[in-house]
Every structure is written in C-alpha cells, then in structure tokens.
Design brief:
Two copies of one chain form a homodimer. By secondary structure, chain A is an alpha/beta fold. Chain A has two domains: about 5-190, inorganic pyrophosphatase (n-terminal core), CATH 3.90.1640; about 195-315, Roll (Diaminopimelate Epimerase, Chain A, domain 1). Chain A is built from twelve helices and eleven strands. In chain A, the strands form two sheets. Chain A has a six-stranded mixed beta sheet. A five-stranded parallel beta sheet of chain A has the order 2-1-3-4-5, with helices on one face. In chain A, helix 5 (about 140-155) runs antiparallel to helix 6 (about 165-175). Chains A and B meet through helix 6, helix 7 and helix 8 of A and helix 6, helix 7 and helix 8 of B.
Chain lengths: ~325, ~325
C-alpha cells in the first residue's frame, strides 16, 4: 500500500520524537532531505534526531550547520532517499524493523514500511520533501530552501542528467524565491576544486588510455597518486566522471586502487550503452548511466579485463 | 526612449526582410537569441537573414542546423545581446546606422536605436527573446526552445552565476516543456571535453601561480601550448574559468597570448570582488564577475602588472 503526500503530512504534523535516517555513503540528496526535514520538524516544535551509518563528509557539512540533536528514545522512524534496507548500513539491524515512513524516488525501492511514498518521477527525493513541507504548511526558511536545493542540484548533476523535468526547474525557482543560494550551491558542488583535486586531475589525465577508436576511455587512480597530490576521499570524489566527459566516449572507466583488494571499477556510460550490464559481468551493478564492480587483479590485468568486457558489449550491440 | 515588449512584438509581427545581428566573438546567448528569433520569424513566413562579424564556432553550430538564409536587401535591422556599437565588429560601419531594434540585457548598453529594449534583470538575453516570442504569439518549436535554452544555460554558466533569478528557472521549465533538450545541452556545454581540451587543461594547470595567500590564482595560455595540444579556439574556450574554480580563490586571472599584441587578460571574480573595476585599470571592462583587458607586454610583465592591480584592489577593500 502506498501512502499519499497528504497522509504523510498529517502523520508528521501529529508525530513527535522523530528519527530521520539517510542512506550509507550519504550524498547531497539524502542529506538535503534529512537536514531539510529535521529543520522543518524542529521549526514545528518537535524533537528530532538524525542518523546515518557513515559520517557526513565536509562537502555536505553546511547542510547541518546550526542543527543540534538532543538525545531521546525515538517514537517514529522515517527514511529519506533510502532505496533498500541494506542501504541503511550498520543502522539496518536496529532501525529497519521500526521504519514507519519511507520517502524515496528510486523506482527499484524495496523498503517495507507502513507508510511508503515512492515517486520515481522526482529527479531528487528533495523534490518530494519540498512538496511534503508545502502540504504540511511547514515554514520553508532560507536554510531549508538551501538544503532542498542542494539535493536537487546534486541528484541532477546541476541539471545535466536526463531525470530533470519541468517540475524540477519550477521547484528550483520556488526554492530560490524562498531564499536558497542556488548559484553558490551549484558553484560549491560543481565548480570548486581543492588544489589537491587539481593535482589529482593532472595525474589522472596522465593515465588516460583510449580504446575502440575513442568509444571507451580508461583512467586509473592509485594510492601513490593520492599521496603525491595530498588528496583525501573528498578530493577524489567525482573523478570517475572525467573519462566519460571526453568527446566521443560512450563508456568511461575508472580503476581505483583498493589496498589488498585489487581495483574498484567505476563505469559511466552514455545511452545506448548500459553500464550496469557491463558491471554485472564481474558481479557488480548499478544504473544504465553509472555502475560499478570490483576486480581483484593487478592494474594492468584489471584494465585488460574490464576493457575486454566493454569491447564485447559494444560489439554485441553493433557499436 | 525605451520600447515595451509589446511594441517590439507588434513591429516584428508587421515587418519583413529582417536582418538579425549577433555580437562579435559570438557566445551561446547572442547566437541562441539570433537562431531562435530567425526560426520564429521564418515560421511566421518572413524573409530573414543573420550576420555576425565572426564565424559561428563548431560548439554552437547546432543552433543554426537546418536554417538557410536567402539573399535580400534588409528593410529592418535587429541586434540581439549587442551591448555596444563596437561589438558589431566589422559589421558596425555598414549596419550600425541602420539598427532599428536593439534587444539586450547588459546594464551598460550604449547602442542607439529607435526601438531599444534593455532588461538588465534578465540573466540571458534569451530570456527576453522567450518573452518576446510569447508576446508575438509565435510558435515556439522544440528547435526554438533548444536555441533559447542554450542561451540561458550559457549565460548563467549552467545556473552557477549570480545573475540567475526565479524567472530564469521558470523560463527553463517552460522551454523544457516545449521540447528543449536541457540536460543534453548542459552536458554538451559544461560536461564534454575534446581530447585537445584535456591536453590544454593539463598544460594550463602547469602554469598555475598562487598570490595573496591563495586569494588570486593566475594561469597563462600561449600559442605554443595550443600548438602542442592541437587545440583550436573552441578547445581554449572557457579555460578562463579554471583558476577561479580553485577553493579559496577570489580572483582568477588568465593571460592569453595574442600574437604581436601582448596578452588578453580574463578576470573571473567571486563577490565581493569586482573584476570590472580591476580590468578598468588597464582600459578594459565587463561585469563584476567576469571582465577583461589587454596588456601589451611580455608574459612575465603582464602577469606582474595584472597581479599588482588585483593586489591593490584586495588591499583597498580590506580583503
């Protein structure tokens, strides 16, 4: 049974002592949802807590600025942008049985909860939270508008992904009108590089190999490169999109060294190529546009194996 | 005397044999305006011609796809996104005296024309053309929507500049609803690099110098670098935004070699820094966020002079 937005709004307005959960390895959308919802509920005078299996990285820390969460025993548990129980990570065991409301935009959502609201037409789960707060007649402060805008911007790659709809732009318009710093948030997410990041990009480009007449481009990231560039995890974030950005590339492959476990492979594809199908060859998965897998081998062997799989996919599909 | 949008619409609906002019070194906004307006006027059965002092680069060629312009003696001349007579370049002498309608969004517009419409609140001149076509009740085909979206996206740096307003997003929503391929256009403009561009970025990063504790970053682009990277003008386009992208940088400076004329300087600034005021020291100009000037000197001397001017501005403003 799916709930309506009106039902969710009614419950949240009635409830108190609410725990909001984000998915593990949290991104801008799940954190934008959680921070916006927590702020709005606090604004309504409720006790609220937030939890996530992994820490909030510095990139997203601003979403939670000024928020403090008191200790209390939650009465109601809400998940935002969490597509499957496993994505609760280490929080699954304690909290999944008690999830009462699940708000998400993944078509594949497999969460069970008394109140489920999954709108796969929403480019970002933050679009749903925006509509929910309107339905609740909660005040959308400039801080809340920033959190929601951050989610919309993150999950659409700054309006570059196919998931963007006219509604996405209309919500962005309303959020900016409510005080969201849209331009700053987009610059922060998509147009700001640390010096370590610049050093990483130079090194990553030096590893660039072309295959199949330029339809596939492959780069690698080793621990040594990170050390030389003085790069942390945040600085390496998003580097997987570099090879796919090159003109004519249909599949971008990034091999990232995982100490003692070979290489983590990120695949980024442009339609009609399906990255998830290529990743599945090595037991991985994901979406058509972005997928991943692991290959426990040397860099040369891992690159050879994944490139061979890309080649087979391209050949089988006449590309 | 400023005209109203209604007046412009009435004239354009009445006129025939119209010449539309873009500014020299044409960008996505002036070309988006021109291609959209030409397509709409042709759709209304009129004879239309387009001219620009400089060629349309491959980056923007898709805006004019399928458009053909017959030869005829123009009866009416319209400029789009042209802020000053000199920006007509080599077309100034012949056509400036005959400009009848000037449509622009630069607050500094100095064009004289019987019908002037300058809306400096519009992030892109394409926002004005969108409203104008609505006022004209012209059909906005998917091709026209693409042209207008391209202008909006270009002139806002994919919704990253301060000039974006709620109206910008609402127009983007309407354009996407009318068939604009927003995500593809944003990817094409902001997420696609030629291999020569990648080679240029590597070389440009190698020239990176920091000043004033990282508040100013400076890079240079020489003809030799372009030759080594196999880069054309398109491949060097937008490189001026690289130094400003680095975390903590308030002023990004890019020096581009101009054979026999020293260096063209591009300044990109983050509020509260005003790039136009710094460029004015060397007789240049522009906006607060993006400005330019020329310094006829060696690379070392030009860098020293512009950096000194940046330093003075920062000091005078206590930054």
């Amino acid at each position: 049974m799916e709930a309506t937005l009106c039902e969710l709004a009614g419950r949240l307005n009635d409830w108190d002592r609410i725990l909001v959960l984000s998915h593990r390895s949290p991104d801008g959308d799940t954190l934008g949802c959680a921070s916006a919802l927590c702020r709005a509920l606090i604004g309504l005078g409720k006790q609220v807590h937030f939890a996530c299996a992994d820490p909030v990285t510095p990139r997203y820390a601003f979403l939670f600025e000024g928020l403090t969460f008191p200790d209390f025993e939650p009465e109601h548990v809400v998940t935002v942008d969490v597509a499957a129980p496993d994505l609760l990570g280490t929080l699954k065991e304690t909290w999944y049985p008690r999830v009462e409301m699940c708000i998400d935009h993944h078509a594949t959502n497999s969460m069970e909860a008394p109140l489920r609201y999954v709108d796969s037409h929403a480019a970002a789960a933050c679009e749903i939270i925006y509509s929910l707060l309107c339905e609740m007649k909660a005040q959308i402060t400039p801080e809340i508008a920033d959190c929601l805008y951050a989610g919309v911007s993150s999950d659409t790659g700054c309006f570059k992904y196919q998931n963007v709809t006219p509604q996405t732009y209309r919500i962005a318009a309303n959020l900016v009108e409510l005080g969201a710093h849209g331009a700053e948030i987009n610059r922060r997410f998509f147009d700001t590089k640390t010096r370590a990041r610049v050093e990483m990009e130079k090194r990553v480009y030096d590893t660039l190999h072309d295959y199949f007449g330029g339809k596939c481009a492959c780069v690698s990231i080793t621990d040594q490169m990170k050390a030389e560039a003085g790069a942390g995890e945040d600085d390496a974030d998003g580097l997987a999109s570099l090879p796919r950005q090159i003109e004519g590339v249909l599949v971008g492959v990034t091999l990232v060294e995982k100490a003692g476990e070979g290489y983590k492979i990120s695949l980024r594809a442009i339609p009609p190529v399906n990255a998830a199908e290529i990743a599945a060859v090595f037991g991985g998965g994901g979406h058509a546009g972005a997928a991943g897998c692991k290959i426990n081998a040397s860099l040369e062997q891992a690159e050879e194996q994944i490139v061979a799989a890309v080649g087979r996919w391209l050949e089988e599909h006449g590309l």
